[in-house]
């Protein structure tokens, strides 16, 4: 049982905003929610556990949607997904067994890099290429899964951006990454529950409720808001919050 507190309402609003952005861009739910939870003073391991638990619902719905619309390259899904699951489990295990205070500055720095990465991606111009080879996708999945579990975010920005930058068609790249993300997220969330033997139900419920309320508006955002403008705004927001956390840690 839990009560609706001001923190619960704040996290529900964060979940709403994150899902609204994710619906329009296909990424950034984990990035926004992780940054917000850390800003509220929640330790890194419970933060990543709550975010990934909430994402099981959102990524599951997203994966089904992409499967229905035939956006998934099954070979790419397997090549990314299997190493991604292994990397996610390893990352969750590492984060669960190190001191939260020690790792917090590194996670803040990682989020700052991811925020700047999104800003640069928003500024990058040029049409996508044709489909490319996927020989490196296994390593990409392993690294993306590990960093996603450690930092609480990063699977979408790293995996999708790398595939698009190397020449994969946007539809297949986004669909395959989103489908693989469900399995990676499920593995990470399960590992955290095993390692931590606890669940922050209030945080998870708030993020899920906010996300579900925003889900119907994702299509509107994707259609009416310019992706580059939205990406730039989110990149700046995440970078600013990460900088604030770093200054607070070392100040």
Layout of secondary structure:
Elements: H1 6-25, H2 29-39, H3 44-68, H4 74-96, H5 100-123, H6 137-151, H7 155-165, H8 170-196, H9 201-214, H10 218-224, H11 227-250
Q: Can you offer a commentary on this structure?
A:
This protein has helices spanning 6-25, 29-39, 44-68, 74-96, 100-123, 137-151, 155-165, 170-196, 201-214, 218-224, 227-250. By secondary structure, the protein is mainly alpha-helical. The protein has one domain (6-250). The protein starts with 5 loop residues before the first helix and ends with a helix. The mean pLDDT is 83.
Derived structural class: mainly alpha
**DSSP strand count:** 0
Unreliable runs, pLDDT <50, ≥5 residues?
none
What's the total helix number?
11
Helix content: over 70%
In whole angstroms, the N-to-C terminal distance is 38 Å
Total count of domains: 1
Q: In what range is the share of β-strand residues? A: under 5%
Q: Order of SSEs, N→C? A: HHHHHHHHHHH
Largest sheet report: none
Radius of gyration: 17 Å
């Amino acid at each position: 049982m839990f009560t609706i507190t001001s923190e619960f309402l704040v996290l529900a609003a964060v979940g709403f905003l994150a899902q609204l952005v994710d619906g329009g861009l296909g990424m950034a739910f984990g990035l926004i929610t992780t940054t917000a939870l850390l800003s509220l003073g929640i330790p890194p391991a419970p933060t990543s556990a709550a975010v990934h638990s909430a994402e099981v619902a959102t990524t599951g719905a997203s994966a089904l949607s992409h499967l229905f619309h035939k956006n998934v390259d099954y070979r790419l899904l397997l090549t990314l997904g299997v190493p991604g699951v292994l990397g996610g489990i390893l990352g969750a295990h590492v984060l669960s067994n190190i001191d939260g205070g020690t790792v917090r500055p590194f996670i803040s720095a990682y989020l700052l890099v991811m925020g700047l990465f999104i800003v640069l991606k928003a500024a990058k111009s040029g049409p996508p290429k044709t489909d490319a080879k996927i020989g490196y996708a296994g390593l990409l999945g392993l690294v993306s899964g590990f960093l996603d579990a450690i930092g609480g975010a990063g699977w979408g920005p790293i995996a999708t951006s790398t595939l698009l930058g190397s020449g994969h068609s946007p539809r297949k790249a986004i669909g395959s990454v989103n489908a693989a993300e469900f399995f990676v997220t499920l593995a990470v969330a399960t590992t955290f529950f095993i390692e931590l033997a606890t669940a922050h139900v209030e945080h998870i419920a708030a993020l899920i409720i906010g996300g579900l309320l925003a889900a119907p508006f994702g299509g509107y955002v994707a259609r009416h808001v310019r992706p580059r403008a939205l990406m730039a705004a989110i990149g700046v927001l995440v970078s600013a919050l990460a900088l604030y956390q770093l200054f607070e840690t070392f100040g």
